[in-house]
Amino acid sequence: TNVTVAIVGRPNVGKSTLFNRLVGKKLAIVDDTPGVTRDRREGLGRIGDLTFTLVDTAGYEDANDNSLEARMRQQTEIAIADADVILFMFDARAGLTPTDEHFARLLRRASKDIHVVGNKAEGRAAEPGLLEAFNLGFGEPIPLSAEHGLGLADLYTVISQAV
Ligand code: GDP
Ligand code: MG
Question: Are 72 and 35 contacting, i.e. CB atoms less than 8 angstroms apart?
Answer without folding.
Answer: no
